[in-house]
Fold this sequence. Notes:
The protein is 79% helix and 0% strand. The chain is mainly alpha-helical.
Amino acid sequence: MAGFERKVDSERADIDAVLSMAPIDQETEVVPPAEAPEELPLPSDPKVIFLGGLFVLALLATAYVASEIVLPLVFAIILKLLLQPAMRILERLHVPRILAALLLILVLFGTIVGLATAISGPAGTWAAKLPEGIPRLQERLSFMREPIDTLQRFLQDVENFGGTGPSPSAAASGPTLLTKLFTGTRNFASGLFTTVLFLFFLLMSGDIFLHRLVEIMPRFSSKRQVVDISQQIESDISAYLVTITIMNAAVGIAMALAMWLTGVGDPILWGTVAFLLNYVPILGTALGVVIFLLAGLLTIDTLWLALLPAGLYVGFHLIEGETVTPMLLARRFTLNPVLVIISLVFWFWMWGIPGAILSVPMLAITKIICDRVRPLAAFGHFLEG
């Protein structure tokens, strides 16, 4: 392992040497991210467009079919970017690379296991309480019964329009919403060991893949471009992940205090729920409103007080998601919000909840690469908000 670490350090020195050299190739293809070219190059060869489309479709099909391997690998890469600043700090303190990687993995997954252990008891209690509370919910939401029944009748009429309607056996055989919702999460949990294994060796390898890519580039401009893209991805994505993690933790702490002060109880459980849901844009917030609304209705007798937890959650989200976080990340990320939603829905369909969590980082990485590769600059401009 000591020889491996010396090899990685030597490779990093080589990469630094590439960056420190003055550019000698005047025909560089690097597109500065802050200055878009006046005329964005668009592909005009139909063969290039056709082959590019086939490559993207093949890549997506592979990601879907081999999700048990691809998803842990992508998650490990994103976690590596999240832990990279801490890894750099430990390296400056002369901590051996293998020890630093093990320490960071233990801290990360130790925190996850600790939180899961802390909330398992309260979560089981609430799960047992929910069937008994359904009549109470129906009573308290009786004013909404008529609109809901009308909507159900309308949807049934639309479904039966032009046909005889589905048979009860066909409806029963279809997948339920909960089954589809947690399929991705269950598959990811089964691949946890694979994720940890990938993450350990990614942290251990350091810049070895970057060094190999620099070596095979034919021109100096291409070498410098590869290093620039790699460093920009590491800098921007690490900053994004660290920022949203800190802000999500702040939302979780605020909701834990709110649930304790309003009398709902189990602040660690609800703080963890708010923290995790905040990683999923829009859909996570909508689901959080429903969860905190149900928790308030099941616990608090006074109606307006029962609505308070959900109202506070919306308020915290507006402060964090619409004001603080955009202000902190505005200089690094200006993604098209429509494409963010499309990416969120698409990756949720592909990989479930883990895909929804990874959708924004993957979209940001795509934009960083496109902004710095001239043939893809037009697509990068299209992704910009």
